[in-house]
Amino acid sequence: MQIVSLTSEQRMLREVVREMLDADSGPDAVRRSGGTEHGFDEALWRKAADLGWFGLEVPEESGGAGGTYLETSIVLREIGRCATPGPYLPHSLAVAAMAAAPDSAPAGRWLDTMLSGEAIGAVVLPTVIADGRTRYPVRAVESGPDAVLHLTGCVADVPDLGVADVVVVAADGPDGPCVFAVPAEEASLQPEWNPTHDRTRRLYRLDLDRCAVAEQWRLAAGEEAARLVDSLMWRAATGIALDGVGGAGRVVEMAVEHAKEREQFGRPIGAFQAVKHMCADAFLEAETARVAADAAVMEIAGTGPRRAYWSSVARFRAADAYARAAGAALQIHGGIGMTWEFDLHLWLKRAKLNRAIFGSCDAHRARVARIASGAHELVAAGEGDRRWTSR
Amino acid sequence: MDFALTEDQETIRRSVADLVRRFDDHYWREKDRGHEFPAEFYEAIARGGWLGLTIPEEYGGHGLGITEATLLLEEVARSGGGMNAASAIHLSIFGMHPVVVHGSDELKRRTLPRIVSGDLHVCFGVTEPGAGLDTTRITTFARRDGDSYVVNGRKVWISKALESEKILLLTRTTRREEAARRTDGLTLFLTDLDRAHVDIRPIRKMGRNAVSSNELFIDDLRVPVEDRVGEEGRGFTYLLDGLNPERMLIAAEALGIGRVALEKAARYGTEREVFDRPIGMNQGIQFPLADALARLDAAELVLRKATWLYDGGRPCGREANTAKYLCADAGFSAADRALQTHGGMGYAEEYDVARYFREARLMKIAPVSQEMVLNYLGSHVLGMPRSY
């Protein structure tokens, strides 16, 4: 395990992202954009695209900046810090999928416009189920006289599906996993918005009923698809973790600031140990989450052998920590924290929702247990299936 | 609703507290260190007539209920005697329950008055290495041979076996595979622990060292039929009767340890000065102790309700289990915080909280683990599928 140490360019990237989000994605802007038709600030989205945020790790020959996942992680963390609404995480996953298959038809059709922000991507990934195993909710089945592939299945809680122009769908096919890029104009793609308390993210349900696959949708098949799905799941888990690391850091800052300013019984409430210690505990939560997320980022950026393990550890650790830190921050703010005017609830609600997307915290815990005990590899090998091994 | 103890119950509580005050922390510290049975304490309790608290009057006891028994053991533990004191008398106080309810008159006449006088020490032999909490899997076997049985097998975690004359022994008389139901075919005896046929080996352990915990190797132990409690094959049911009161007693003992630990901690926090003021002025120290108090008080209420239900002849499984769970937890966490409050001194034997801590930890394991209590509540109270 390596410790993340940023180069001067990476530090500069973080500063630029933070400056821009502080200016354009403060709490007022978050409230405003969360309530718009599409649920995010489209001007900010275009700015982000212009600054090259979407292609940070895409090779230069494909139109990106040729960096690593580390750069992407910097952006995702800062977005979490501001609880910025918008399809940033799913889009980053869809871009990664296209970039992994640069010669495929979908990459040819979508990659450029996705990098420029004109087209938005979303992903439908397999689920991590309660016992830590992977299950594909979407199946690709051959049917009809020509044995055409059809996508069938029902998925819940897909982030930002409603604003996507293209959806990267991982399916369990007749010969193992396969990945398709389904254009949003496809008639059978009808996402249904499931409103949640969190106004900074939108979750959708998707019912695919015998959606006929066009050949030009195929992004990957066979071994290549298995590897791609693995990598997308690691990135999804780590992406949620990074959001939590950013958000947890921010709510702790807010709590500490309040504890220093607010006076009761003639002194700042932070002088009371019960409050001070709560701040310290929340800080510790945020720090341990950061360490776990850093480990996952370094594994993914360096294609290390423990990507599955660390991404799941980071996922549950950071999502738990974010929710706990936000809960502590609320307690420290007292009645003020309960008001609608005060901004803390924006983070608290996002933190709660983070625990439930791309697999629950408990499912990722179970996955970590499976990997640590070796069960994951054994079962996978027994099934003649190398998906989701810890390597 | 009436939360008050009766006048008699208050008297019991006060008298016991007065009696056991003589045995101070120094006494228990030395007994624990020397792995020495607290004979003087036992003697004093017996002479006070307390051992017969729940034994029927016709056998020399007072015929009182589990409420009085829990008050007694709570005070005993709270005196600073902790589990060393409680375990020394625990089985005499309520452990004879299966004998009282199901034993023959002859067996009762032969044994109960001697329990009351303190002359007869007994231990309880149920657990086996191969069975753990899955009691019906015990294999110690009693084979009928004329007017007696011949017993062979192994027992483990038998408290006070070293000091006991007799054992309340659970055996199989029909093998599990051959029994109609897995709970059939178990038979209970109250018989002599004949050292010629039972090898008793104390287990080295973390605490409660004044009362031994033992492994028993039983080799051709001959048990006369008269020593059988009730009918052959019905032993498991007889034990079931005693499980809820057993949990309540343990709960009371855990509560007592938590109380004494908390008292010590509050006193130390008020007296000890660091950075020019009593350490108890720090919220980081005061709040965990206040929290421990709230938890002990809440746990006590459930315990009182449980004993009230049992003594009134009402179902009490839910409350007995909840009381054990909450009291064990509250007692341990009070002891843990007391140790923390004492800082480095908490780790020294001299301040006694380390002893409370070690003993309080036991209550989360014995007589059933906290997890098994949750199993009970989950499946029997919430109606969820059995998870084990």
UniProtKB/TrEMBL annotation, chain A:
Organism for this UniProt entry: Actinomadura livida
Similarity annotation: Belongs to the acyl-CoA dehydrogenase family.
UniProt entry tagged with the keyword Oxidoreductase: yes
InterPro entries attached to this UniProt entry: Acyl-CoA_Oxase/DH_mid-dom_sf, AcylCo_DH-like_C, AcylCo_DH/oxidase_C, AcylCoA_DH/ox_N, AcylCoA_DH/ox_N_sf, AcylCoA_DH/oxidase_NM_dom_sf
Descriptive protein name: Acyl-CoA dehydrogenase family protein
Positions of the Acyl-CoA dehydrogenase/oxidase N-terminal domain: 7-118
Annotated Acyl-CoA dehydrogenase/oxidase C-terminal domain residues: 238-370
Keywords of the record: FAD, Flavoprotein, Oxidoreductase
PANTHER family in UniProt: ACYL-COA DEHYDROGENASE, ACYL-COA DEHYDROGENASE FADE28
Cofactor(s) required, per the database record: FAD
A GO term for molecular function: acyl-CoA dehydrogenase activity
Automatic annotation (TrEMBL), chain B:
Any GO BP: fatty acid beta-oxidation using acyl-CoA dehydrogenase
Statement: the UniProt record of this protein carries the keyword Lyase: no
Assigned GO CC terms: cytoplasm
Cofactors (names): FAD
InterPro entries named in the record: Acyl-CoA_dehydrogenase, Acyl-CoA_DH_CS, Acyl-CoA_Oxase/DH_mid-dom, Acyl-CoA_Oxase/DH_mid-dom_sf, AcylCo_DH-like_C, AcylCo_DH/oxidase_C, AcylCoA_DH/ox_N, AcylCoA_DH/ox_N_sf
Domain Acyl-CoA dehydrogenase/oxidase C-terminal span(s) in chain numbering: 233-376
Domain Acyl-CoA oxidase/dehydrogenase middle: 123-220
GO molecular function: flavin adenine dinucleotide binding; medium-chain fatty acyl-CoA dehydrogenase activity
Assigned EC number: 1.3.8.7
Keywords (A to Z) from UniProt: FAD, Flavoprotein, Oxidoreductase
Top-rank taxon: Bacteria
Domain Acyl-CoA dehydrogenase/oxidase N-terminal as annotated: residue spans: 6-119
Keyword Disulfide bond: no
Pfam family, one: Acyl-CoA_dh_N
Entry's family note: Belongs to the acyl-CoA dehydrogenase family.
Name of the protein: Acyl-CoA dehydrogenase
Source species: Actinomadura livida
Species lineage: Bacteria, Bacillati, Actinomycetota, Actinomycetes, Streptosporangiales
